[in-house]
Amino acid sequence: MLFRSRLDLIESIAQTTEAIARIDETTRVRFVEAFTAINRYFGEIFHQLFGGGRAGLTLLDENDPLESGIEIVAQPPGKRLQSVQLLSGGEKALTAISLMFGLFKFKPSPFCLLDEIDAPLDDANVGRFVEMLRSMQEHTQFILITHHRKTMEIADRLYGVTMEEPGVSKLISVQLSA
Predict the structure, then answer these.
(1) 56 CB contacts (<8 Å, ≥6 apart)?
(2) Where does the chain show beta strands of DSSP type E?
(3) 3-class SS at 1?
């Protein structure tokens, strides 16, 4: 009886180890596929939003992608390839937007809340950002908190908070027709 229990336990451990190995391999394959696609989308969107340049993601340890860190490299038009930490504030924001849209292009979400994401962008970059939002509205509903007029222009509904008298906030809404 004790011998049989021991054999069952050894067999169970072997099956569990085998299942973990299969799960790890499936996870590794899916991660690499997703990483490759997101990296491609990120590069394409970066090029669109910056009007040129290139960007990409690299694994810090390609031998162990599931435990590896990821580095973001970017080369805006007219600049050399560099780590994202060396970019200006607006360039960092546009690079982050490119990565976020790359993720959304890979796996769209039904909605996305963006809080003043366009604040560090100049008018030209806001224009490209707005065009990118338009192209993604088919799959995702965007809820934007913004002070930028150009971004508000693409909305079909606006909500605002005003303070007509000190200490009393009032919500106003406007539905825009196309």
Answers:
(1) 39, 42, 43, 72, 73
(2) 54-59, 70-75, 82-83, 111-115, 141-145, 157-165, 168-175
(3) coil
Instruction: State which residues of the chain have pLDDT below 50.
Output: none
At residue 177, the pLDDT reads 67
pLDDT at 178: 55
Q: What is the pLDDT of residue 144?
A: 93
CA 8, CA 97: separation in Å to the nearest integer?
A: 53
The predicted structure's pLDDT at residue 1: 67
**Cβ distance 158 to 176 under 8 Å?**
yes
CB 95 within 8 A of CB 42: no
User: pTM here?
Assistant: 0.81
CA angle 86, 133, 154 (to 5 degrees): 125
In angstroms, the CA 141 to CA 108 distance is: 10
Q: What is the pLDDT of residue 124?
A: 86
Contact 173, 157 (CB under 8 A): yes
Nearest to 79 by CA among 92, 60, 69: 92
Determine the Cα–Cα distance for residues 3 and 10; give it in Å rounded to an integer.
Answer: 11
- Are β-strands 111-115 and 141-145 bridged in parallel, bridged antiparallel, or unpaired? parallel
pLDDT at 174: 85
Contact 60, 68 (CB under 8 A): yes
